[in-house]
Amino acid sequence: MWQDKSHLNYRAFKEANARKDLSPNPAGVPPKSAARQRKIQCSHCGYEQFVLEEALSVFCKNCNKRITLGAPSRSAPQQKASVTHHLRAVSCPKCEAQQQVPHNALSSFCQKCGNRINLQDYEIKGKFNGELNTKGTLVITISGDVHADVTVGNAVIEGKLVGKILCDGMVELKSTAKLYGDVIAAHFIVNDGALFVGHSLVPPTIRQPA
């Protein structure tokens, strides 16, 4: 004879859920949704439970009494160490505006006219013809043979240069250098033995009174 046992299955289901609700939560194991929760202890009965991290008060699940919570402790965010860049002053070759750029930068854009400023260093060991414009340092080695007008930040010449030099900083002719052209620079050094055929324009050094 067939008997309806659905009520027995329902009763077993309720008892299983009741036992599940009464089972203690293992110590130190947060619920699945505890990514932004913290563990607290009831100040009245000592019961431990998880609450939202931002909660300031909550009711105890054991004794139903109100628990006042303090603000969660937060570790101060670590500030990134500031990186100090060594700066140097350069002038735009187009509008001559002065500006500060990182010492190790390869190029920059003028803050006034937007012109690209070349900041690379160059070392010429062979023949070169044309023009060269950079706010970096130009080095012409003893084997270098350059026929060009150059605009540079600094220049060190050991070989031969035929052309005009416009320099923001210092031009130095080593003892083996041969320069055929005019020089406009802030500083100009000619070592013994160097050959210089041309004119130089160097701003006079102004001494401050002691």
Any overview of this molecule?
The chain is mainly beta and 210 residues long. The chain is 8% helix and 39% strand. The chain is built from one helix and 21 strands. A hairpin with a 6-residue loop joins strand 5 (87-91) and strand 6. The longest helix has 17 residues, at 6-22. The protein is rod-shaped. 13% of the residues are buried.
Instruction: Please summarize the sheet with the most strands.
Output: 8 strands, parallel
- Number-wise, the strands total 21
Q: For the CA atoms, what is the radius of gyration?
A: 40 Å
H-E order: HEEEEEEEEEEEEEEEEEEEEE
Unreliable spans? 20-24, 80-84, 206-210
Output mean pLDDT. Answer: 79
Overall 3D form: rod-shaped
Alpha-beta content class: mainly beta
Distance between the termini: 123 Å
- Share of helical residues: under 10%
Q: Treating each run of at least 4 consecutive H or I residues as one helix, how many helices?
A: 1
Strand content: 35-45%
What descriptive keywords fit this protein?
21 strands; mainly beta; 1 helix; 39% strand; 210 residues; 5-stranded parallel β-sheet
Q: Secondary-structure map with pairings?
A:
Elements: H1 6-22, E1 37-41, E2 48-52, E3 57-59, E4 66-68, E5 87-91, E6 98-102, E7 107-109, E8 116-118, E9 122-124, E10 127-133, E11 137-140, E12 145-152, E13 154-157, E14 160-162, E15 165-167, E16 170-173, E17 178-180, E18 183-184, E19 187-190, E20 195-197, E21 200-201
Parallel strand pairs: 9-11, 10-12, 11-13, 12-14, 12-15, 13-16, 14-17, 15-18, 16-19, 17-20, 18-21
Antiparallel strand pairs: 1-2, 3-4, 5-6, 7-8
